[in-house]
Design a protein that fits this description.
mainly alpha
Length: 228
């Protein structure tokens, strides 16, 4: 699948020089909804083009900022599609007609199990996990997770992922002059897989910090209620 998408990517580079932010938003919306495809083939080339002054608005830093923001907004838009459809249709309808939404029942059950076990923080962590990042919005919608908290956790997770991919592409763009987009995507994916443990370690630290803070807040609240 990635190989076929790379071919189309190379054919749309000229369009992306002007319409890059719009394309990033659209592709990341699709990537984050029911039609998942590798986000690497969108955000890594965006960073690559930004480093070469080939992405709107032209200057490298501003182009990187615009690309990341468009990526986050697109990820949120796609997640909202899953969230609100799940909220409106409900669990039974989703499972019954999963195939019409290009979903596998096993994948839905896996996402639901993760959400039940880890709660709201799963919407943050799972944005960094392949094959599950799109689906975690579904159990969040079924469970009627608070919309603000859903947006916050989803945006944070998507933001980290957008920054990682864009910076990788940017670094390759600064260091190389004749790399093809196919080589860029493959070398970047290899780099990501080689350093995934660092990414997970950082996420684990954030999750532990969140849990500790939440427990401290809840403990303080219960203490105040007991004193009242």
């Amino acid at each position: 699948m990635t190989e076929h998408l790379i071919v189309y990517l190379e054919e749309t580079i000229e369009i992306a020089r002007v319409w890059g932010p719009v394309l990033i938003f659209v592709f990341m919306t699709v990537e984050s909804s029911f039609l998942p495809f590798p986000s690497e083939i969108v955000m890594i080339p965006a960073g690559f083009m930004a480093a070469r002054h080939e992405l709107f608005p032209g200057t490298p830093l501003s182009a990187v900022v615009v690309a990341v923001l468009c990526g986050i907004l697109g990820s949120l838009a796609g997640a909202y599609i899953n969230y609100f459809l799940s909220l409106k249709l409900g669990r039974a309808v989703l499972y019954r007609y999963a195939k019409w939404f290009f979903l596998k029942r096993e994948s839905l059950e896996r996402a639901e199990g993760i959400f039940r076990e880890y709660g709201e923080i799963a919407t943050f962590v799972c944005r960094l996990l392949p094959a599950i990042r799109q689906l975690i919005s579904i159990p969040a919608g079924v469970a009627r997770m608070n919309f603000f908290r859903f947006s916050l956790f989803t945006g944070l997770g998507a933001g980290i992922w957008m920054i990682v991919l864009t910076v990788i592409g940017y670094q390759f763009g600064m260091r190389t002059q004749d790399m093809s987009y196919a080589d860029l995507v493959h070398r970047s994916k290899a780099l990501i897989h080689g350093h995934y443990m660092w990414l997970f370690g950082g996420c684990a630290a954030i999750v532990v910090g969140y849990v500790l803070i939440q427990r401290r807040i809840m403990h303080g609240r219960k203490a105040r209620e007991a004193d009242a």
